[in-house]
Sequence to fold (508 residues):
Amino acid sequence: MDYDSIIIGAGLGGLTAAAKLAKEGQKVLVLEQHNVPGGCATTFQRRKFTVEVGLHEMDGFGENSFKKQIFDEFGVFDGVEFVRLPEFYRTVWKGADFVFPDNLEEAKNKLKKEFPDEADAIEKYFRFVTGLGKEINNLPRTKTQKRIKGPLFPLFYPKLVRSTLNTAAGFMDKLFHDERLKMILLSNASYYHDDPYELSMFYFAAGQNSYYSDGSYFIKGGSQKLSDYLADYIRKQGGEVLLNCEVSAILVENEKAAGVTYREKKKKGTTEIKIYAGQIIANAAIPLVARKLLSGESAHKLQQQTAKMKPGPSILTVYLGFKKPPKETGNQHYSTFIIDDSVKSIKDISENSHAGFDKRSFVFVDYGMIDSGLAPEGKATGVICTIDYASDWEDLDEKTYKGKKKEAGETLVSRLEKLLPGIKKTIEYQEVATPLTIARYTLNTGGTPYGFAQIPNQTAKKRLPVKSIVPGLYFASAWSSPGGGFTGAILSGYTCALKVLYDSHKEA
Ligand SMILES: Cc1cc2nc3c(=O)[nH]c(=O)nc-3n(C[C@H](O)[C@H](O)[C@H](O)COP(=O)(O)OP(=O)(O)OC[C@H]3O[C@@H](n4cnc5c(N)ncnc54)[C@H](O)[C@@H]3O)c2cc1C
Fold:
């Protein structure tokens, strides 16, 4: 055996799993097909701009939060600087404007003042969401911690059970009457899923609680800093991280995942290299594992298990570099959700996700509002982002694809110009990334960065666990448990490593 664990992919899930395993003394190898680690958690350079690919905001670091404990363990706070955002977000809808404060009590009071008839319901909403956060923090995190199972579970975790059965919009409809209040609370639901009537209340409330209670953060210098830190940490613990190495197959021997074959992409004419390990951990998308990396009976089993699972949506991003910070053109907020006027109520959000770019709601993130470390002095970067789908871009010839991309960028920028007159003239760099761009750089099926859709029948126990049905094969990514986003992928990686360590200990 060449390694204890081989990790396919250096996204946050893969890097976190490898970091923990290497720290615990395992001999690990991470194989990444791209030329940088990070997957979606990455940046690229254009002129003098550092362009952030996949981070608008990351939820906070509550004292009892699992993520804070993981970062403390790896010393992340000593090597990576997190910048707290000035507010949660701003919503612009039907000419009305609401800025959601970065403080739970302030947010509650501001909402109660704006919607006095809904004051009791607002109190109940925040009590539920923060209560769910406490239940999650009290869940056992290791195999050896006491687990409550069976009929007693709902008694100890009532909010958790209720949240997994509800959708975010269904929950709002039961609690509130005012559509504007519901829209304000659901403005950033697109960070979780494209339809709030499908989005699991568990995912929405768990994430929102962390933002409400512990703030929102950006990584100074961009998310690549976190990915690079984790890759360096793995190497310092004796692990290896190889870039430009694409895994083409997972080898299953005696019905157990036993190794991989990979190809060094930069070396022309190189043959496939075969290596073996005790465990294989896929950070790569689970559908890719099922359809391309596995073969025979194990592929069939995983394809069957995932056949009915629905993937999440993808994203279209317009990356922007500004000659001068948008605040000089009148912008005052870090992130602004512009909900199109054709959206009359939260019931229209899902349909709007498929509307033309002249009507699709979008978020504008202005990194110039914080000390982001992304742009040279006196300049700034930003993004316009909207839900999108790979299927709308597939099968186009190159000319049509490029034309559609250009048009999408120009349409969205013109809509930003309406919000911030004069901003267009300050744009020095502009580039559009479609779902196919995400798919090309991360190999994520359908270009989704969220993994399987975060909907009630794919929540908690119904999601694929970190230990797969193929012996010796584990998952550590947004596609597995608990779910997508920076935090989801990091927790998945760490939980996966704990499971691998526990199983190896049992076998020894
Ligand atoms: C535009 C955009 C904005 C986002 N905004 C936010 C945000 O504000 N906040 C937030 O929390 N989350 C955000 N996300 C989501 C978040 O970035 C992802 O959910 C998370 O980073 C996914 O991590 P992951 O570990 O699942 O793997 P991924 O990032 O998907 O990485 C998988 C890695 O595996 C590699 N790989 C795949 N197949 C192979 C193979 N065969 N061989 C070798 N390597 C392979 C890929 O190259 C890739 O590096 C955003 C994502 C995008 C794209």
About this structure: The pocket of flavin-adenine dinucleotide is lined by residues 8-14, 31-34, 39-41, 54-58, 246-247, 283-284, 288, 315, 317, 438, 442-444, 449-450, 477-478, 484-487, 489 (CB under 6 Å). Residues 485-507 form the longest helix (23 residues). The mean pLDDT is 95. The radius of gyration is 22 Å.
